[in-house]
Amino acid sequence: MAVGTELLLGQIADTNSRWLGEHLAAAGVSSYFHQAVGDNRERIVTALRTALARGEAVIMCGGLGPTQDDITREAIAEVMHVPLVRDEAVVRRIEALFASRGRDMPANNARQADVPQGAQTIEQQRGTAPGLICPLGHKVVYAVPGVPHEMEEMFTRAILPDLRRRMAEQGEEAAIVSRVLRTWGTSESALAEVLQGRIDALDEQSPAGTGVTLAFLASGIEGIKVRLTARARSAGEAAALLDAEEREVRAVLASTLGDVVFGLDEVTMEQALAAVLLERGLTLGVAESLTGGLIASRLVAVVGASTWFRGGVVAYDSAVKHAVLGVPEGPVVREEAAVAMAQGARRVLGADVGLGITGVAGPDPQEGVAPGTVYVGLSAPGAGDLSRVLRVPGDRQRIREYSAISALDLLRRTLLRSAEETGAAATG
Amino acid sequence: MAVGTELLLGQIADTNSRWLGEHLAAAGVSSYFHQAVGDNRERIVTALRTALARGEAVIMCGGLGPTQDDITREAIAEVMHVPLVRDEAVVRRIEALFASRGRDMPANNARQADVPQGAQTIEQQRGTAPGLICPLGHKVVYAVPGVPHEMEEMFTRAILPDLRRRMAEQGEEAAIVSRVLRTWGTSESALAEVLQGRIDALDEQSPAGTGVTLAFLASGIEGIKVRLTARARSAGEAAALLDAEEREVRAVLASTLGDVVFGLDEVTMEQALAAVLLERGLTLGVAESLTGGLIASRLVAVVGASTWFRGGVVAYDSAVKHAVLGVPEGPVVREEAAVAMAQGARRVLGADVGLGITGVAGPDPQEGVAPGTVYVGLSAPGAGDLSRVLRVPGDRQRIREYSAISALDLLRRTLLRSAEETGAAATG
């Protein structure tokens, strides 16, 4: 249940319900209804009563802020028929949070420490509002802030474990465990086609609601995910099923689509690349034009990046490409320029490996080159200098993001391949 | 009301509810509740009865396809207590649609011509499924396909006119228009505190459901939004109310919190900064350490950035700060280093204005400086060289993102202020 007039007015999208749906499903919890309601006490109460009548647990997102139109706490207390009680320990945590930013807590924020009598709080770790776990007979209402990163953290840390405990008490727990193979460079339909045989085989093997299922998730731009979900009597049994199926799926993909799996679960492309660089003891420098710092900013998001990432040059203006990176005068939206940028990055930044990227994000063509045309250049010990052309569909932002991941993937695959070849030569 | 198990599983986002909310609000129709439900007849019926009990009109999206799990038609007929009747004229339109693609209509698609007795159809113009207008006493249920462009076309062509007609009959027609003031550098509670007087005044002035309301939206990291919503008899009248209230709110904010409003509606911080740079005819170069390209990548997202953005240096490794940017040897997590980076960016990238940022994203301290400590340096004609220290709470990613926006805002405010001073000096 999402709370906030801005949702009803369409001013923001309700991404929380989608996120919760996905994560509840992965955890084996059936969700039957979503609701959104505005900042109106009577209607929140009505919606909450409806939700409780239709399910055993309700997750409410939003309406826990400090202002007068944040009334989720009041609505829950009304449905529970209990008063709100100010939790002084929570007040002190909020005060400490403000103090750490060198500020006094505004009086309004004390409202965030009001707790329906009989409810537990979920300690706030990212924002000022704590979450709530509110028992109603054998049912339960969870309340979390509407800010996605606060909600997601509380769901994972407190709500999901509480739900699992309740399911176990009711004897509903089967172990449901998921694993996600992250792929890049292929389409959902191509994956579905080559894995249809596995899906059919799994359907035949597991008629009784146990066993493994495969699903595809095209969640945004970060590649297609192949989700393996195992249902068994214990977590160990489920993990063994997943191990076996992961081997099968990897073998099918490697023999048909090549090296499309770059990692598991929450691994990002930059983490996958970082692992390869670390293993080979190489440092990296990047030179970016159309991606404008997107590649560098992804790389520094990896914890420990300072051991292998030297830095980057965002050469948005052509003059910067020539003056700073030493790209020869002439056209700069060319494969040769991408390679020269990679060499320049290697030299200027003192890195072992250089990655260069140039191209046209649009909306207009540049140097006669159409939007969506992107050139990636690499310069690396062992692999030498090479370049690739990408044709990327979509708008300006999509072209930039897709190009950034593609460039990281190209570097990852190239380094892996040159390591294999070096290994083969050394042992051959 | 959105129908489809894929919504509950989080496999697709419910963009229709947001679109409808936005367009209903713009048309002056209050929407009070959103629901999503899976492809389960019993639960669709329950949700539809709930929706009808809570409102006078219900729009259902989805479940009108040709397959056996598309059961919106059946559920509506059950709630209406009427049978489904096949509409032969609709069958012929579906057949003609397939014929125009050189194909025969699959038998399943005839189901899409089933209409609850007493309902009207909305002719399909983009897909195979017609929409439905289903009267239930003085209330009404509209059903449209879940495919966004089919839904949007039917809403505009048939549903909105029908709703307007019903509202006119009940004398309820009004225009609702919103405007959002984007702020940075203050908290939701501080805004609420200084604007409480306006909120109280507005409450007194508009007891009859007309007039202006204020609300605060804390949507993620991009600052707090102050939303002004006006309800009036016409769009022109509503806009005039908004203009007047925007002046009041801006005056209150300027006199209490300073220059916290950076733009309106969908304007981003980088667009606000771009407008200042463009107006003053200045080019910009950036030097980033902990933000690692995040600032540069935000800047190039602005269409037309090539006219004022020269590029950036991501000096993640200290050696790059010294060698490329000319930061003096010694500690690099200092205000002096941030200023030297700004000067270096200006010189190396050939830019009028230089922005430098260094600090500690964590998790560990660096050079004895605690995580969340960030130094921003500026070097600009007119403003000279200056620096600021930020203390940013949160994890690594949040520290980086918050620092990036803060640095952009600092530059924006500094350029605005130096322009004012120059203007004052010139006219003084």
Can you describe this structure?
2 copies of one chain form a homodimer. Chain A has helices at 5-8, 15-26, 41-54, 72-80, 88-100, 148-169, 188-205, 235-256, 269-280, 294-300, 318-323, 335-348, 396-427; strands at 2-3, 33-37, 57-61, 84-86, 114-116, 120-122, 131-136, 139-144, 175-183, 211-217, 225-232, 261-264, 284-288, 309-314, 353-359, 373-380, 384-391. Chain A has 428 residues and is an alpha/beta fold. In chain A, strands 14-13-15-16-17 form a 5-stranded mixed beta sheet, with helices on both faces. In chain A, helix 2 runs parallel beside helix 6 and helix 9 (269-280) runs parallel beside helix 13 (396-427). Chain A starts with a strand and ends with a helix. The mean pLDDT of chain A is 91. The interface between A and B is large, with 91 and 91 residues.
Q: Categorize the overall geometry of chain A.
A: globular
Count of discrete alpha- or pi-helical segments spanning 4 or more residues of chain A = 13
The largest sheet of chain A, given as strand count, sense and whether it forms a barrel, is: 5 strands, mixed
> Which chain pair has the greatest contact?
A-B, 91 and 91 residues
Low-confidence stretches of chain A: none
Computed over alpha carbons, the radius of gyration of chain A is 26 Å
- CATH third-tier fold name of the largest domain in chain A: Molybdenum Cofactor Biosythetic Enzyme, Chain A
Which strands sit side by side, in order, in the main sheet of chain A? 14-13-15-16-17
Name the CATH superfamily classification of the largest domain in chain A.
Answer: MoaB/Mog-like domain
Please provide the ordered H/E string of secondary-structure elements of chain A: EHHEHEHEHEEEEHEHEEHEHEHEHHEEEH
User: In terms of structural class, how would the helical and strand content of chain A be classed?
Assistant: alpha/beta
Count the strands of chain A?
Answer: 17
User: Briefly, what CATH class of the largest domain in chain A?
Assistant: Alpha Beta
CATH architecture of the largest domain in chain A: 3-Layer(aba) Sandwich
The average pLDDT of chain A is: 91
Percent of residues of chain A in helical segments?
Answer: 40-55%
Strand content of chain A: 15-25%
Oligomer: homodimer
Question: How many angstroms separate the termini of chain A?
Answer: 62 Å
